[in-house]
Amino acid sequence: MVGLLTQNQEAPVAPQMEAAEGGEGNVSPEEQGQYDQFMDNAYKLIYSDNSLPKVLERIKSSPNPVEAIAHIAASTVVRLQDSAEKAGSPISPDVMFQGGVEIIEDLADMAGEAGAHDFTDEELESATYQAMDLYQQMASDAGMVDQQAATQDMAALQQADSAGTLEQMVPGLASGNKGAM
């Protein structure tokens, strides 16, 4: 990552991925490796000398910082998915989802540290839902996602939220625990 960060700026280290939907918390070494690579690439995109000032400015200047981080996260996931597919290494949906949540949390932390906005747990949850909607739209427009499957996935998340089981499905999201991936 040398040369990708501004002086005095350190890229975050990719956290461990947790199993979704009530899993034991164990993921296969292949899935963990894919997640680590996904997060490394995401951090390279976000923290590059070219991108970081634009990312911070977008969050700072936005009248809706929740929407700003949702858009940045969704755009990052779509770019990584497209790149991986073109390289013949598609990314698992679980990895993209868990990675997307981690990107949102990281962007929120970065915004807080930069004095742009301190996100509440509710804003992080809202940003996650907005990012999923944006991702679905962007990926669908690019022909990268099965619209029916994505709609079913979103409905399952909304049902889990209504039933109070969202924390089991997405550890850390409902309670706002950062770094839960």
How would you characterize this protein structure?
The chain is mainly alpha-helical. The model is unreliable at 1-11, 19-24 and 176-181 (pLDDT under 50). 64% of the residues lie in helices and 0% in strands. Helix 1 (29-47) runs parallel beside helix 4 and helix 4 (93-113) packs across helix 5 (121-141). The two termini are 22 Å apart.
Order of helices and strands: HHHHHHH
Structural class label: mainly alpha
Shape: globular
| Percentage of residues in strands | under 5%
- Quaternary state reads single chain
Helix content: 55-70%
- Give the rounded overall mean pLDDT: 81
Count of beta strands: 0
Rg, Cα atoms, Å = 16 Å
The unreliable regions are 1-11, 19-24, 176-181
Provide the fold topology:
Layout: H1 29-47, H2 51-61, H3 65-86, H4 93-113, H5 121-141, H6 147-163, H7 166-169
Helix pairs in contact: 1-4, 2-3, 3-4, 3-5, 4-5, 5-6
